[in-house]
Amino acid sequence: MDYNDFLQLVLSRQSDRAYDKNRPVEKEKLERILEVARLAPSACNSQPWKFVVITDKELARKAGKAVAGLGMNKFAKDAPVHILVVEKSANITSLLGGKVKGKHFPLIDIGIVASHLVLAAESEGLGSCILGWFDEKELKELAGIPTNKRLLLDIVIGYSVKEKRKKIRKPKDKIVSYNSY
């Protein structure tokens, strides 16, 4: 893949908020997406995540309802796949480094793996949306996630039924500087 191919992938990826609820995601595509996530980098190779993948139609509908609380994310009820991203303990090297540097590396690592997941979904012709607003207790109960674990994200995946939108981003000169702030 050259730069232009990767740029096109990034340009086409968007947060999709409408899915074909009658079209399941093929297992082979989902396995390739999860393999890309498995290979994502993390601080000290800690890999502080576990993915709970919901593909059962009824369970996905219930997960979508848990994500759609307070009127937010109503579209999630139509997503055929929910990838729940659970924070796991970092290894000792990452934990010690985080203490020294005042950073919680698992959150950074989970941001990286989420990016890998959604770009891999886009490369498979699928839409996705990273969700952080949901009823954590209800989703944990639905998916059998232990109460002492943090469920940080629900990444919904499916076949988008909306057209691509033009990306609106800040101009480069507002977010990039060289050699000083």
UniProtKB/TrEMBL annotation:
SUPFAM superfamilies per record: FMN-dependent nitroreductase-like (SSF55469)
Protein name according to UniProt: Nitroreductase
Matches recorded under InterPro entries: Nitroreductase, Nitroreductase-like
Species per Swiss-Prot/TrEMBL record: Bacteroides reticulotermitis
A Pfam entry, by short name: Nitroreductase
Keywords: Oxidoreductase
Span of domain Nitroreductase: 11-159
Entry's family note: Belongs to the nitroreductase family.
GO molecular function terms listed in the Swiss-Prot or TrEMBL record: oxidoreductase activity
Gene3D superfamilies xrefs: NADH Oxidase
